[in-house]
Design a protein that fits this description.
- This protein is α+β, with helices and mostly antiparallel strands.
- 31% of the residues lie in helices and 22% in strands.
- The chain is built from 17 helices and 22 strands.
- Strands 1, 2, 4, 7, 9, 10, 11, 12, 13, 14, 15, 16, 17 and 18 form a 14-stranded mixed sheet that branches. It has a 4-stranded antiparallel sheet with strand order 3-8-5-6, with no helix packed on it. The chain has a 4-stranded antiparallel sheet with strand order 19-20-21-22, covered by helices on one side.
- Strand 1 and strand 2 form a beta hairpin.
Length: 684
């Protein structure tokens, strides 16, 4: 009896153990099957949705279920990319042209490996008929390996497939490369890969011989009156820029739409004044946004097209090399660019030269931006005029020490780095009792000379690559700089607060191949917003004039010109009260508008009389330095009223545009986006 009971007890215990093992196995299998599904965190999805849409991906032009096409930044480069979640396969079918190659890059979104994502494997396969070949495979784990936090660029030779119809497959698998066959599955949580601009050579759709290339160069903080070609006393300060002016057309009276970097460059890129493109919030707010301490900075609306987007849609290769920080791609500057690289021009010259070699057979639009002339001023060439050799050497050593400091490492964001270095230079100059206008002016002028030398290096590269014969070169600036012009205390990093000519009068030079108007100077007043339509006209790219406030300057190159000067608006929203200027060729009206909420930097667009802190009027013909304010002059009241009325009319249009945009805004996820999220497995 006891034996029988013991057997039953053993059978019972065994049954429990077997049942437990089965249930545990099913649970574990289900658990890892759930992980195997696309488990995407809300934070990652939110971050992806906030990215700008990719402009064009030639291999995958149509919608792909469960795939986002976005502008993605990894390291210093922003590119058009496909965002994939493991496990996933995407395919493209096409006929391979002769002498073809496949180019693409891939990497990981920072927000993915900061969260639950870790490693993944990307495999590229080619299926031709019944044959399948793996042409590329790589596993990266950016969470564990810092070296994997970059773009991995690849070029694959497809000559053996020339003339064949193939299926190109990109396959993404999750964390574990060799999963157990029983139930263990790869951990796919937030395993997110980005595949940048996969392209096949031989797909060029326009003939490079029929179209100009364009190189648009912006030298940040460059005053027009500090170049030799604009009559500066040091004729040797800018020989290479002067050479471009002698080969091309120079506009002597060019007005920028803002005295600081972000809104001014966005006006160049959109052909709109700051109140229209709306990327014009205060500089102080941009600073807190970049350090993670403030609310999001306003970025360019998807509905506003940019200059590089027009070129992109016409088949041009598009690339930008910028100094980052206030030219960060995430503000909207990256829109339209195949590649948006945030690095200095000097550091990037070899990269630029190689890119030109590889892409000169296809029309291209290149935007180059340098902050070399911006504070901190690091040009020592002219200091021996006022300092001893020992003082110059000591200052150089000080500057070398803070440039080599840990703060200059890549771990520090560009905006914060700039602030640290500028503060360091001010401190060094003060310590040596050299923080004086005559010293900072010379440092600034020396920086212009060094920048011009780089322009010579760039021009030599264009000549050696035989590109000058079909490349339009444009040189300009976003704003100038004040050196005690209106305030004895402003002689270092002094821009953004006012709209006087020292900060809004900028250079503009067009060098156009084959144009028989070399060395011509145009005195008619024009604006930075006119650059965009002019370049589109020169390259015969269609646009709708009603969408732009700038106008084409093509008539000047054709020998006709304009009967009247173009009236210009400049807006200062960097710090303090809002300042707006309306400038005719003969007079400038300025108004300063108080903030609604000084704590949150909330501003108004159109001022009632009681909101105006100050109004000014200057006669530019008799007082080009804007020293004598004529606003209270009774004889000049009609001029003030006329210019203010014109300013208010345009700004009221901006208010109407803003109200319409607010009415059209949709905060909820639309059905199209819901279906894409459903395909990703994120929503039911």
């Amino acid at each position: 009896m006891k034996l029988k009971f013991r057997k039953l007890f053993i059978y019972f215990i065994g049954l429990i153990i077997i049942t437990s093992v089965i249930l545990t196995s099913l649970y574990i299998k289900q658990h890892f099957q759930n992980i195997h599904k696309k488990s995407i965190s809300t934070a990652l999805i939110t971050d992806i949705l906030q990215l700008y849409d990719a402009d064009q991906l030639s291999l995958f032009p149509s919608e792909l279920p469960g795939v986002f096409k976005k502008k993605v930044q990894i390291g210093i480069e922003t590119r058009d990319a496909l965002i994939l979640f493991a496990p996933q396969i995407i395919e493209s079918r096409f006929k391979v042209p002769s002498e073809a190659s496949l180019k693409f890059g891939f990497g990981a979104l920072e927000k993915s490996y900061q969260g639950r994502g870790d490693g993944f494997q990307l495999t590229v396969k080619i299926i031709a008929g019944a044959e399948e070949e793996i042409v590329y495979s790589r596993y990266i784990d950016p969470k564990k390996n810092i070296g994997d936090r970059r773009w991995f660029d690849t070029t694959l030779d497809l000559k053996s497939y020339a003339g064949q119809d193939i299926c190109l497959c990109f396959e993404l698998l999750g964390s574990y490369k060799n999963p157990c066959q029983l139930w263990w599955e790869p951990d796919n949580r937030d395993d997110c890969a980005v595949v940048s601009s996969p392209t096949i050579s031989g797909q060029d759709n326009i003939n490079p011989g029929e179209h100009f290339n364009v190189i648009l160069i912006s030298i940040d903080t460059l005053r027009a009156d500090h170049l030799g070609c604009y009559g500066f006393k040091r004729s040797e300060i800018s020989p290479y820029i002067d050479w471009v002016s002698k080969k091309g057309t120079l506009f002597t009276q060019v007005i920028s739409q803002s005295p600081w970097t972000i809104p001014s460059h966005m006006s160049i890129f959109t052909g709109l004044i700051p109140s229209f493109h709306r990327v014009n919030e205060p500089y102080t707010k941009f600073g807190t946004f970049n350090t993670g301490e403030g609310s999001p900075y306003r970025i360019l609306s998807d509905s506003i097209p940019t200059l590089p987007q027009f070129f992109k849609t016409q088949g041009y290769r598009t690339i930008a090399i910028t100094s980052g920080g206030t030219m960060g791609g995430k503000l909207g500057f990256c829109k339209g660019f195949d590649l948006y690289r945030e690095a200095t021009l000097i550091e990037s010259h070899s990269f630029i030269e190689q890119w030109l070699k590889e892409n000169k057979s296809q029309p291209f639009f290149m935007f180059l931006h340098t902050m070399r002339v911006h504070a901190p001023y690091l040009g020592f060439e002219y200091l021996p005029e006022v300092l001893t050799t020992g003082q110059v050497q000591e200052l150089k050593q000080y500057c070398a020490s803070f440039l080599a400091s840990p703060y200059m490492g890549i771990s520090v964001i560009p905006f914060e780095k700039d602030r640290i270095v500028i503060a360091a230079e001010r401190g060094i100059l003060s310590k040596m009792d050299l923080f004086k206008p005559e010293i900072t002016k010379l440092l600034y002028q020396g920086a212009i000379l060094e920048t011009d030398r780089y322009m010579g290096k760039l021009l030599n590269s264009l000549q050696s690559l035989d590109l000058m014969k079909n490349t339009i070169v444009v040189i300009t600036s976003d704003h100038g700089e004040e050196f005690t012009d209106h305030d004895p205390a402003n002689f270092y990093d002094a821009h953004g607060k006012t709209v006087y000519d020292e900060v809004v009068h900028v250079p503009l030079i067009f060098c156009i191949p084959g144009l028989d108007r070399t060395g011509k100077k145009i005195s008619t007043q024009v604006r930075s917003i006119d650059i965009m339509p002019t370049l589109l006209n020169l390259c015969t790219i269609a646009y709708d004039q009603k969408d732009l406030q700038g106008v084409s300057l093509l008539p000047f190159f054709e020998g006709e010109g304009f009967k009247h000067d173009l009236e210009a608006i400049s807006e200062a929203t960097s710090e303090g009260p809002e300042m707006k200027a309306f400038r005719s060729h003969t007079h400038k009206y300025i108004e300063s508008i108080e903030l609604i909420d000084r704590v949150n930097d909330e501003r108004i667009l159109v001022a009632d009389a009681d909101k105006l802190e100050r109004q000014e009027l200057y006669d530019l013909e008799h007082d080009p330095g804007e020293k004598e304010d004529l606003f209270d002059n009774i004889e000049k009241q009609s001029i003030s009223l006329s210019l203010k009325h014109k300013l208010d009319t345009i700004i009221h249009q901006a208010v109407d545009r803003l109200h319409k945009a607010r009415e059209d805004r949709r905060l909820s996820i639309d059905e199209h986006m819901r279906q894409r999220l459903k395909a990703l497995g994120y929503v039911e």
